[in-house]
From TrEMBL:
Name recorded for this polypeptide: Ankyrin repeat-containing domain protein
ANK repeat ranges, renumbered to this chain: 1-28, 32-64, 64-96, 99-131, 133-165, 173-201
Any GO BP: regulation of gene expression
Key words, A-Z: ANK repeat, Repeat
GO cellular component: nucleus
Record-linked SMART domains: ANK (SM00248)
Nucleotide-binding is among the record's keywords: no
Superkingdom of origin: Eukaryota
InterPro entries, per the entry: Ankyrin_rpt (IPR002110), Ankyrin_rpt-contain_sf (IPR036770)
Gene3D superfamilies from the UniProt entry: Ankyrin repeat-containing domain (1.25.40.20)
Organism: Mycena albidolilacea
Keyword Ligase attributed: no
């Protein structure tokens, strides 16, 4: 079955399934195991994915990239992602070897606004958190200076002042943007109401900008009324 799927041989796959092949059987090394559906998803084989789903393939079986949705996400297979979501794939299913990131975290990190929109439309939580730092999709999009994805996440309810980090080391989206010197991102976050006076491990947003000597960001923050005490 795996060889037939790899060759995108729909007729052979139908025949094998008709004669009792295990549709959810996995293959590969211990750390790289995947099912026929996983293989089809990461290759973007829409017709094969459709066939396997029609024949009862389990979308929630885990492989090394998580569920079928995870495999499609990592290969940026948008049509397959849309199909899986239409068929009821778990939009919050964490990745298996990806520190339990949700699909939305993965899409935001990849900077694929279209896939982020698909996941949000399917009910993904824009405030989903992962690992001990409680990092949210918005933090990844800000770090990547991905203005379209940040706008979309904020439009869908992401918390503009969401904190991530731990006891002695934490920051907010505006701090990230200031520390990276992303002037347009800083401007967007301020326009959307980000709090300039929240304090992270390097003080306020102004403190983060001073730390990395981003003069254009410093000037903008002061123009917007940031307090000089960092």
């Amino acid at each position: 079955l795996h060889l037939a799927v790899e060759n995108n041989d729909l007729s052979s796959v139908r025949l094998l399934l008709d004669h009792g092949a295990d549709i959810d059987a996995k293959h590969g090394d211990d750390g790289l195991r995947k099912s026929a559906l996983h293989d089809s998803c990461c290759r973007g084989r829409f017709d094969m994915v459709s066939l396997l789903l029609e024949r009862g393939a389990n979308m929630e079986v885990y492989g090394h990239d998580g569920t079928a949705l995870g495999f499609a996400l990592h290969a940026c297979q948008m049509d397959v992602i849309r199909l899986l979501l239409q068929k009821g794939a778990n939009v919050e299913a964490p990745g298996y070897e990806l520190e339990d990131k949700t699909p939305l975290h993965v899409a935001a990190e990849a900077g694929n606004t279209g896939i982020v929109a698909l996941l949000l439309d399917a009910g993904a939580d824009p405030a989903a958190r992962w690992d001990q730092d409680e990092r949210q999709p918005l933090h990844s999009a800000v770090w990547n200076n991905d203005l379209p994805t940040v706008r979309l996440l904020l439009d869908r309810g992401a918390n503009i002042d969401a904190k991530y980090g731990y006891e002695a080391w934490f920051l907010f989206p505006l701090h990230e943007a200031c520390g990276c010197g992303h002037l347009e991102m800083v401007s967007l976050l301020l326009e959307r109401g980000a709090n300039m006076e929240l304090r992270g491990h390097h003080g306020t947003a102004l403190g983060f900008a001073f730390l990395v000597r981003k003069m254009d960001v410093i000037k903008l923050l002061l123009q917007k009324g940031a307090k000089a005490e960092v």
